[in-house]
Amino acid sequence: MAVYTHLGAEDLAALIAAYDVGELVSAKGIAEGVSNSNWLIETTGAEGIGARFILTMYEYRIDTAQLPFYLGLLDHLSARDCPVPRTIHDRTGAACRTIGDKAVALIEFLPGVSVDRPTPAQAKAVGAALAQLHGAVGDFDKSLAQSMGLAEWRRLLEDCGKEGLADIDPALPDLAFSELGYLDAHWPEGLPRDVVHCDLFPDNVLMLGDKVSGLIDFYFAAEDFFAYDLAVTHAAWCFEDRGKRFRPEISDALLTGYASGRSLSDAERAALPILARGACMRFISSRAYDWVNTPADALVVRKDPMDFAARLDFYREHGTALFA
Amino acid sequence: MAVYTHLGAEDLAALIAAYDVGELVSAKGIAEGVSNSNWLIETTGAEGIGARFILTMYEYRIDTAQLPFYLGLLDHLSARDCPVPRTIHDRTGAACRTIGDKAVALIEFLPGVSVDRPTPAQAKAVGAALAQLHGAVGDFDKSLAQSMGLAEWRRLLEDCGKEGLADIDPALPDLAFSELGYLDAHWPEGLPRDVVHCDLFPDNVLMLGDKVSGLIDFYFAAEDFFAYDLAVTHAAWCFEDRGKRFRPEISDALLTGYASGRSLSDAERAALPILARGACMRFISSRAYDWVNTPADALVVRKDPMDFAARLDFYREHGTALFA
């Protein structure tokens, strides 16, 4: 949560002049994004384009060679009426530009706020929006292999080492490596797949009341099972008390909403318990890696991997009955 | 530059409901403010009140007992057509509320961007806006003693110690304490005074082209000499290359702009050289204190006190001729 680069009025005005969006009126660095800096920009506007935008500068982690994929995905989904911000192209038609040695993109601003504790009506709307996304991505002409899959979870956890994991929680090393073994042995194959979001936490959903006004932050999007994306969303939305308390009414609503837009096959439904366990391992592994590699006194808030160990316990015990 | 406290949609909606500003549409934490957290808030609006606001949560350093002073000052100046954001009062008429144990205020959003390298036309506008502020504050009914005056500069520097200062720059201890001695012996008395801004850096001025659209961040405002406030503004605006290069055209424009709104007395003009030296010491002392007390690896960017030592050198050599 930071703005890593200073951009003055002069830098911003020069950038904005490359787009047909009118003149710069206001710019505020916003505290969103871990791998990039973001500004909320207001301009005098231009016909057919609103007057507010998010300017994103890609700072870390994101391979800028993949920007045409990420930005093209926004445009593809937005053109199919998904609540996804479109990319504003500059006067030459380019979706991204550079300032100094850094890539930047100007992205449509969408209203809405992220909820902390969703209601069933909100969870239903999110399920429906996810199904809409899955239905709209079919003819997108770019793809990106999943780099955050099972092999990467193992690599991250092995990099932490059993001692590093035990420092987080004494139970974590056994839990993590035994679960990895199970997932390796039983991970499904052949389920319907395409480019999916893979990170649809409440933070990444903007809502106006019960309506989804925006799905944002597609920088973990990659080709994977639709049902895995649903499992990630389920794990992200259906728990409270840091993963310790399951919210059945949210689970029901999310699955009902999804079913309203896309039917799960029997094979997908049967796979959901293991996919949900995988979703937990995905966040256990990345959070454990960040935990071990972030100094305890750094100002970055470390996210506790054990919040997803609690969810994993739940899915191991109740997953089969839950998704039956 | 951070948002220290998480506020979810539910917290924000509950807060906004206490004001007659319509319903919450968007909220983005913004990367401004060192002592407080800020959000750019959009609502559906209400008659006579715009639909965008800055929500400030007071986190550190600011004595919330002084909030009626700071917020009242905004309202006072705004009512006198100064380009200052007014405070939005809640349905009970209160200028601030609390969330948990923290005070918050909802403040008018003003357009504009801060410039990095002002033009003479911009500096002239800033000088005129400062004079307008000085002319408008007369009948404000609250006051606040200057807590960042000479005695405090000495306390901060003594707290650093000569070794701490020498770690920043070997020349700093002698420079600082000899200058403090000079200022103590020669600081003027009896100049016109009232509540003044005391921190009018380019960061705290919003501009639209050559026009000042907003003067913000009054949290160092206190009773002091008008001419001292002008000296602070001069030191903040008229240099580049980290204080090493004076910009005479900016100085001329700033002073011309100020003179267009308020005439300096002979005594004020004669005092400007020492007041400008004092302005440098004010930022040398606070920056040195923060430097010594901020870990080198903290994510907060430390501001170099030597940038103001360079300005001090300039004023010592050229101040008398400059302001004659």
Automatic annotation (TrEMBL), chains A, B:
Known pathway: Amino-acid biosynthesis; L-threonine biosynthesis; L-threonine from L-aspartate: step 4/5
Top-level enzyme category: transferase
Keyword set includes Cell wall biogenesis/degradation: no
CDD domains noted in UniProt: HomoserineK_II
InterPro entries hit by this protein: Aminoglycoside_PTrfase, Homoserine_kinase_II, Kinase-like_dom_sf, Pseudomonas-type_ThrB
Gene Ontology terms, MF aspect: homoserine kinase activity
Enzyme Commission code(s) on record: 2.7.1.39
Signal peptide residues on this chain, from the entry's feature table: none
Keywords noted in UniProt: Amino-acid biosynthesis, ATP-binding, Kinase, Nucleotide-binding, Threonine biosynthesis, Transferase
Residue intervals of the Aminoglycoside phosphotransferase domain: 27-262
Pfam families associated with the record: APH (PF01636)
Transferase recorded as keyword: yes
Top-rank taxon, per record: Bacteria
Catalyzed reaction equations: L-homoserine + ATP = O-phospho-L-homoserine + ADP + H(+)
Stated family: Belongs to the pseudomonas-type ThrB family.
This protein's name: Homoserine kinase
Source organism of this protein record: Qipengyuania profundimaris
Encoding gene per record: thrB
